Structures are given as structure tokens and as C-alpha cells.
Amino acid sequence: MSPAIKPPQSLNFALFFFAYYGYVGVFSPYASLYFADKGLSAAQIGVLMSLMQVMRIFGPNLWGWVADHTRRRVQVLRLTSLAAATVFCAMFWGESFAFFFAVMVLLNLFTSAQGPLSEALMLSAMRGDLTHYGRLRLWGSVGFIAAVTVSGQLLDWYGIGLVLWISLLLLGLVAFAANGMRE
């Protein structure tokens, strides 16, 4: 039995999963602290953080439909990753609940589709041979753990405002990895 060949885009998938789940690992636990630092109430923060899950109801369905009907999954992934990074930049100017609410709706509309789209692309590239699936998907867990651990220490040293810069850096890496993918 011959050894399975890695999918041609393995590096892009590994980097994508590392950065995407790294972003989740930074933003999910620390965004609430950032919002609290901006003076939002616990109830407002709860609403903002719930938008990450609420948009998972709509985002994957919308972007999956667009990807299926245009038959351009990579372009949709590129679009959503670039849009997420662009929308995220608005976080730097936010001061009010209404502003953050609008940004979180848009941001999570774009980011909620990236996991499912990247998984579909990777499974398609593997053409039924799932030998390397676990090894590639592992990079998402590595990214999550590394981001939570490293960013937690950095935030202790430099303050909660750094969470935006770390998150934006990781969203930029997501866009970079998506840009390197092929249909």
C-alpha cells in the first residue's frame, strides 16, 4: 500500500486553520474584556458576544449558497476573509453599543462562513482520501491554544487594547492564506 500524497494546498490549509482558530482563540475570550474597558455594561457585552453564535445561523447558509451558485468557493472565501479584516478595522474607532453591535453583526456574518467554506475546500482537495485531514485540521487547535496562551500574557503586559491588534493580525493571516488557495 503506497503512502497517501498530501493535498497540494496543505500549507495554505494549515496556515488558514492556524490563523482562523487563533483569531477565535483571541477574540472569543478577550473581546468581552475589551468591551468592558470601553464602558459597556454586562448585558450589552452579553448581547455583543452572542452575535458570534447568532450569525452562525445565517452566515454559513448565505455564503454557502453564494459559493454553490457561483461555483467559486475560493473567491467567496477570499471575499469573506478580506471583508472580515476590513470590517474589523472599525473596532478601533468604536465607542458605543450601537456601533459595536453593527460591527459585530457584519464581522460575524463574514467570519462565520470561513470555517465551513475552508473545510469544504479541503475535503474537495483531498478527493476522498482523508489520510491527512487530522494533521491539517490539527493546526486549528494549535493556533487556538497558542493564541489564547500567548495573547493572554501579552494582554497582561501591554493592556487589553492589544487584543484588537492581535485579532487584526490573525485576520490578515486568514486573508493571506485564503488568497493563496486555488479552486
Q: How would you describe the overall organization of this protein?
A:
This protein has 183 residues and is mainly α. The protein is 79% helix and 0% strand. It is built from 7 helices and no strands. The protein is globular.
Overall body shape: globular
Structural class: mainly alpha
The number of helical segments is 7
Radius of gyration: 17 Å
C-alpha end-to-end distance: 29 Å
Overview features:
globular, mainly alpha, single chain, 183 residues
Structure, briefly:
The protein has 183 residues and is mainly alpha-helical. It has 7 helices and no strands.
Write the layout of secondary structure elements.
Layout: H1 10-37, H2 42-70, H3 73-88, H4 97-111, H5 114-126, H6 133-158, H7 162-179
